[in-house]
Amino acid sequence: MARLRELQADFAQAVLDGVDTAFGHCIRASGLGGGRRLQVYRNNVFLSLTEALKAVYPVTQRLVGEDFFRYAAARYIPLHPSTSGNLHDFGGSLPEFLATFEPAAALTYLPDVARLEWAYHQVFHAAHHPPLDLAALAVAPAERHGELTFTLHPAARLLVSAFPILRIWQVNQADFVGDPTVDLTEGGIRLLLIRRENLEIELQPLPAGEFALLQALAEQQDFATACERALAVQPDTDLPALFSKHVQQGALVDFSR
Amino acid sequence: MVAKPARYRLGPGTIPAQAGIGLRAPHYLEVLETRPPVGWLEAHSENYFGAGGKPLYYLERIRAHYPLSLHGIGLSIGSTDALNSRHLDRLKTLIRRFEPVLVSEHLSWSSVGGRYLNDLLPLPYTEEALAHMVRRVSQVQDYLERQILIENVSSYLQYTESTLPEWEFIAALTERSGCGLLLDVNNIYVSACNHGFDPGVYLQAIPAAAVREIHLAGFTVNRFGQREILIDTHNQRVYPQVWALYRQAVRRFGPIPTLIEWDTDLPALEVLVDEARRADAIVGEERHGAAA
């Protein structure tokens, strides 16, 4: 298998890294030269990986334009190669890449928009989960409630940004109608993304206290700590109402002592 | 001495020797609501590797009405890396849940050193590569506890070190691993044009008993100066030359479950159904011709 392994390594290097090792000599030049034939594979590989990124990041692509997106993808692909045979796993580090990608530096909000799109993609494919067992929760003694920890629904994500990324996302949807102007000075946002029972995905902007509560619970802090954090950032947070809202809407699905 | 390969069965149920179409996300609702008159459906395995959500929701409902084939594009079975156990696990879970009649992968590799190119890259046709593929196909069949089909891919280069023609490599792989064949007639045509061999010779060399499924699709012609190269793009109707080769295949192999594949620039569902009908018509004509 030694020779086959060497051949595959050279092929991958020639395609992904543009390094023309001894590989050119391994291609039979009949009519078309080996370089041209290799170029077909390079095109196919970059095209399909770029298409995979476009499918996950349509808003990001729309913000920078198709040519720029393809250019960024061509830089991204060799630096953060795919590590799975399932293309849906590819592209999770694009937001971090964009944050350090010099040509996009002026678009300060771009990495956060990309983070929102990756979170959306994850929520789309995430597992199902039954709602929280209220009967079991009722059995837990009230004086011990502060010690409980909760689990966020597998199809829920929390996201915070210093930019109005929800508004940017909304006005860049294909079916958006209305004034597409975004005021970047409008400020940041805290978001809950959650897939509902009907499989539609909701993007809920949350006040600071509510977000802090869910964030702390998602980090496996106990309920008392989560409440303290919520009140610390927003003293008027109505904790009982918010807790029951997120149990009913299915964001909190499990608890343990 | 080569051990006699284990002979695995196909999945439960049967796929009619009637044309099917590839199931693609934009068609989910329409397939479910209109139930187009095709014999079966084929889904790309990896599109259903997620833990939940719409793809699995629709596949489950659609599966209730059609025989199913699962077609993998990412297992990288010909790679010299260890088999990706996470990928195989996901595939096995999917097979348990949907009970496909057919499960197929490609005669290709797509990853090395942990990096995936996510493309169907050709293998050199050497004794070394053949022994490797036999081992890998056997490992996958053992793990999945069923027979898999291996599909010939379109290729745009040939290796100087290849010592066997592709058809001999495939025939030997079938014989030694016990796998079935998914014969992609479009891919045979594309590679024949790109490398200058006779597609009829290819068909003649294929062991008829191993052929379980046929693929048909459209290709794209790219020009480099005076030279053309055909690219397997699955973005249009089947070419007349490929229909002619399909007719030859039907004559040689009899009626075989045939699939219309279309991935890029996906058209209206009725266009796929129409292509499937053309495939059925060719099978009908050949059957009639044989009886006359």
List descriptors.
heterodimer, A: mainly alpha, Outer Surface Protein A, domain 3, three-stranded antiparallel β-sheet, 5 strands, 49% helix, elongated, B: 292 residues, TIM Barrel, two-stranded antiparallel ribbon, globular, disordered N terminus
Provide structural commentary.
- By secondary structure, chain A is mostly helical.
- Chain A has 2 domains: 1-91, no CATH class; 126-257, Outer Surface Protein A, domain 3, CATH 3.90.930.
- Chain A has helices at residues 2-16, 34-56, 58-64, 66-79, 94-99, 110-125, 134-139, 165-171, 208-218, 223-233, 239-248; strands at 149-152, 156-161, 189-195, 201-205, 252-256.
- Chain A has a 3-stranded antiparallel sheet, sandwiched between helices. In chain A, strands 1-5 form a two-stranded antiparallel sheet.
- In chain A, β3 (189-195) and β4 form a beta hairpin.
- Chain A starts with a helix and ends with a strand.
- Chain B is of the alpha/beta class and 292 residues long.
- Chain B has one domain (20-291): Divalent-metal-dependent TIM barrel enzymes (TIM Barrel).
- Chain B contains 9 helices and 12 strands.
- Chain B has helices at 28-34, 54-63, 85-98, 127-144, 166-177, 185-195, 199-205, 240-253, 269-291; strands at residues 20-22, 41-44, 68-71, 102-106, 109-112, 115-121, 149-151, 180-184, 211-216, 220-224, 227-231, 258-260.
- In chain B, the strands form 3 sheets. In chain B, strands 1-2-3-4-7-8-9-12 form an 8-stranded parallel β-barrel.
- The radius of gyration of chain B is 18 Å and the shape is globular.
- Chain B starts with 19 loop residues before the first strand and ends with a helix.
- Residues 1-6 of chain B have low confidence and may be disordered.
